[in-house]
Amino acid sequence: MVATMALEIFAQQTVNGLILGATYGLIAIGYTMVYGIIGMINFAHGEIYMVSAYLAAIFLAVLHFFGLTSVPLLLVAVLLATVFVTALYGWFVEKIAYRPLRHSTRLAPLITAIGVSLILQNYVRIAQGARSQGIPSLLQGSFVLPVGDQGGVVQITHVQLLIIIVAFLSMAVLTFIMQQTSMGRACRATEQDRIMAALLGIDTNRIIAIVFVIGAAMAAIAGVLVSLNYGSFDFHIGFITGIKAFTAAVLGGIGSLPGAMLGGLILGLAESFFAGFVNSDYKDVFAFSLLVLVLIFRPSGLLGQPQITKV
Amino acid sequence: MGHPLLTQPLLTAILVLLLTAPVSGLVLDGYDFNLRWHPPLWLTLIAFCIHWMILLFKRWRFGEKTGKPSPWTRISSWGSRPSVHRLAFFVLPVVGLVLPFFLGKYGLTVAILALIYVLLALGLNIVVGLAGLLDLGFVAFYAVGAYGYALGHHYLGLGFWLSLPLGALLAACCGIVLGFPVLRMHGDYLAIVTLGFGEIIRLVLNNWMDFTGGPNGVRVDFPTFFGLEFSRHAKEGGIPIHEFLGIDYSSNTRNIFIYLVLFLVVLLILALVSRLKTMPLGRAWEALREDEIACRSLGINHVTVKLSAFALGAMIGGIGGVFFAASQGFVNPTSFTFFESALILAIVVLGGLGSIPGVMIAAVVLTVLPEMLRDFSDYRILVFGLAMVVMMIWRPQGLVRARRPVFQGRKG
User: Fold this and answer.
1) Residue A308 lies in a domain
2) What string of DSSP letters covers B92-131?
3) Is the ipTM of this structure higher than 0.90?
């Protein structure tokens, strides 16, 4: 009986961990791409994710107000609108806070990034109020799968299934864009050598802006999905989720796209197992400790290349 | 195409309207929403005006080529003149020592807070400003100092005077413990690890109910002065200070005492830091900030130099924490959030990375100003964020530019 219980918990935590990890992976893409291309940690990325959660709820309310009731249509419309406005946020932040500092010291953009995250957090708090907000659950119901031979079950809700599908679909699309299109090629060229890419006629400023837009769009997808899954959010969520997504990016190897997804999944699973089997109060401590340990012992991550300092 | 002075701001305005209309125009109310016209329209108008003014300003700057120094440069160069320093050296301590006797109860609390932030900013200034190590978890050392005193008092019965050096030592040890593994890291990774460390400390303080009391916090006894107590009636065997001095009891006496001790400690630390800045160690910090590889090839031991910066900064943060606990009489984890780290960083950045007078002015201004503008307290953090961004773009060296020690050759 005990074995079945443990197996059941194990299976359920695996499912939860994969879903958590998929969203971490989506947000981590923003960190990893920006770091790859201009070598800075976009500290405000977590707040972009937070803004997208609010946008999703607002668009849902507005569309509902105008009489749209079909669930698939609502989902697609909310997703598209949220991704569009969030991407604009990403573009605007890059343009105002980071572009003027392109040739400044390393510390400067990091400090403006903290400033931007304080601004976004408090702008949302003042505009929408400090209490936590809710989002109606559009998709209800779940699949129940049997586990083991003693009648254990594991539950996967429809929203969770949607998260997995959308996350992997957007990863596939992004990989296709980066590998096959001319824009993707320009991105990779800029990442390898910005000056050389500029000499070859690539508008590197535009490419950097595009990278910020892509990162924000991915964070927006995660924002919509996570809000639908949990049903509530507040203006604080960006901070913790941002750091965890950054942990995922570092774990997978910062600068590497598949690494971000892999890191996200590993972190999601690890956190989920820790919460399920050890102690759920300390799961944030566990994630932060993992971050510190990875940065100390393997700063290049699982799939990244070690950095070589040239003199 | 219209006039560039109008089209560009118009585009910005449209963009800002698009961005702010959903978030500030449609306010969530349960699963429904309320419409608000004013906030997005105001923000759009402000964005238009700002962009327009920037364009005008640029045009005006290009027209004039007189080579006159801007008013800012004049103010900051005035601030770094030796005669001004000498004047400040004599006047400020006297003003600071006399000040508490004229402040009311509320003013005294604000003054103590301002001094604590001066301490914290001086500490972080060593790590970020001088050694160039971006530490986003500085509040951890502040917490170690405060909790060191609170828990030391609670479990071991340690008093304020013993806790002060012990808290400082404990925080310095934490600084070294954190410093060791992060030695190899460069700027951004270091920032994230220190941030993680700060959060770990806060979360542990919050979750370890049996030892720290969790969110309920710990009560702290107020300090004594050579065994004299500041309460109305002393505990068994003690003498309250107002009876000893023969004055009327006033709850202010305690705060004046804390203020004076704190002020002396700030002066001491100030002397220490400004001495260190011109000593070999301080120069090694700044050299390491500028170019680590060059320093190491010249034989500077980067391990001891970085660790000393971490330890010294942490020690000063720890002292700030002990004073915080002593003045509040109570500590709990909500005082040590990431926002506190960001605030101290904002002070150091706004004052001018590496500039001791600038950082001190910024610390006083940024703690006193919000108290005076209580009505706008909602916008306080928003303004901090804006100031950090604007400052980095417009004046990355801060309000008062750091003065480099220069030795002039003998004349003739």
Assistant:
1) no
2) HHHHHHHGGGTS-HHHHHHHHHHHHHHHHHHHHIIIIIIS
3) no
Query: What is the dihedral sign for C-alpha B142, A115, A223, B47?
Result: positive
Tell me how far apart the alpha carbons of residues B36 and B207 are, in angstroms, rounded to a whole number.
Answer: 41
**The pTM is what?**
0.85
Look up tokens 């962009």; give the residue.
B51
User: Does residue A235 fall inside a structural domain?
Assistant: yes
On whether any CB of chain B is under 8 Å from the CB of A278, the answer is no
Q: Please indicate if any CB of chain B lies within 8 Å of the CB of A300.
A: no
> What is the tally of structural domains in chain A?
1
Taking only the tens place, the pLDDT of each residue in B357-391 is 888 888 888 888 877 777 777 788 888 888 888 88
CA distances from B149 to B158, B199, B223 (A): 8, 20, 11
Are residues B385 and A285, on separate chains, in Cβ contact within 8 Å? no
Position A165 in a domain = yes
Range of the domain at A265: 2-297
**Cα distance between residue A12 and residue A1, in whole Å:** 16
Residue type, position B263, single letter: F
**pLDDT tens string A19-36:** 999 999 999 999 999 988
Residues within 8 A of B (CB atoms), A 201-230 only: none
> What does residue B34 show for φ and ψ, rounded to 5 degrees?
-115, 145
> What stretches of A45-156 show up as alpha helix (H) in DSSP?
45-65, 71-93, 107-128
B189 Cβ neighbours under 8 A, 6+ residues apart:
A295, A299, B182
Q: Looking at residue A129, which CATH number applies to its domain?
A: 1.10.3470
CA-based nearest residue to A228, from A134, A87, A132: A134
Across the interface, do A59 and B22 touch by the CB < 8 Å criterion?
yes
